[in-house]
Amino acid sequence: MKGKLDALRVLVAAVEGGSLAAGGRATGLTRDQASKLVAQLEADLGTRLIERSTRSLSLTPGGAAYLDGVRGAVAALDEAERSLRARATAVRGPLRVNAPLAFGMLKLAPLVPDFLRLHPGISLDLKLDDSLLDQVGPDCDLLLRIAARPLGELAATRICTVLRSLCAAPAYLADAAPPTRPADLASHACLHYGNLASGAQWVFQKGRTTAHVPIRGPLASNNGFVLATAAAAGHGLAILPGFLADPLVAEGRLVRVMTDWAVPAIHVFAMASPVHQRDGRVGALQRFLLERLRPE
To answer: I need a labelling partner for 272 at 20 to 30 A (CA). Which of 125, 146, 174, 224 fits?
Structure first.
């Protein structure tokens, strides 16, 4: 697609400049490069667009009709790109973000280079921790939190949905019969996420039925990495988000159990004060994450 867009830009510039050489100069290409792009475009369309000579360039009737149809689209695309670059470069200054540790390492870290490339004027300060912080302050402009609903009284934008599942290691299941219903969990070691608003209980849904199950086990932690590692080592069952469970399931270190009972989904929220919500830097990151992060 990019090659075709480049060819269209060359074609428009060549007609306006009167030669393929002029079209190449206007688009940062040599004459030969410009000529090859237009020739490829003609081959793709199955028709000649321009008449070539050593002194001049003219459009064929088909080329004139084609150019009339695409000139506006090329101009609109160029304007949209100029506007985007202007907006990106206009956003400047520090942006302080706080996000959960495992989510930050697995989902945000791969995106940081692209965000910095798109917004060279922003200086990003990304802190990762698993506290229950629900307020911005002097050291934080934007909170990213994973929860069933927004926390506190901050303005919240839902970025994406995170699916969860109940998992255990094959070695654990070899010694303990896999649970098939929530009541079975009473006889299992359950590895508990300590920051759950529901406390030491798990919630499952099947159709219109909701089950609230008290749990107990050898480990509680406020960090998903810790729970996933303990589960993969065979110490019990754990409810894990997809970004932690998927790689371990793919490697065979974990399997999903009790799959006919759904674990309610949770969401990634971007939270900021009303003042920070109007900040261009906060808006830039929120738009970027909405585009790049998808429901699992």
So the answer is: 224
Place of tokens 């100029």: 82
- Pairwise CA distance, residues 213 & 197, whole Å: 14
Asked if residue 26 belongs to a domain, the reply is yes
Residues of the chain below pLDDT 70: 1-2, 53-56, 82-90, 132-138, 151-153, 195-199, 275, 277, 294-296
- Contacts with 191 (C-beta within 8 Å, 6 or more apart), sequence order: 217, 218, 219, 220, 221, 227, 230, 231, 235, 236, 237, 238
* Torsion 249-250-252-253 (CA) sign: negative
Last residue of a domain, one of 38, 70, 90: 90
Is residue 120 domain-resident? no
C-alpha to C-alpha distances, 181 to 210, 225, 256, 260, nearest whole angstrom: 12, 26, 13, 9
Note whether residue 113 is domain-resident.
no
The model's pLDDT over 148-184, given as tens digits with 9 standing for 90+, comes to: 887 666 778 899 999 999 999 999 999 988 999 999 9
In a domain, 203, yes or no: yes
- Which CATH number goes with the domain that contains 179? 3.40.190.290
Any idea what the CATH number is for the domain that residue 53 is in?
1.10.10.10
Domain boundary among 64, 90, 116: 90
Residues 6 or more apart whose Cβ sits within 8 Å of residue 16: 22, 23, 26
| pLDDT tens-digit map of 259-272 | 999 999 899 999 88
Strands, E, within 16-84: which ranges? 50-52, 57-59
Residue 17 has which token pair?
A: 């400049």
Instruction: Please name every residue paired with 162 in a beta bridge, in sequence order, or none if there are none.
Output: 266
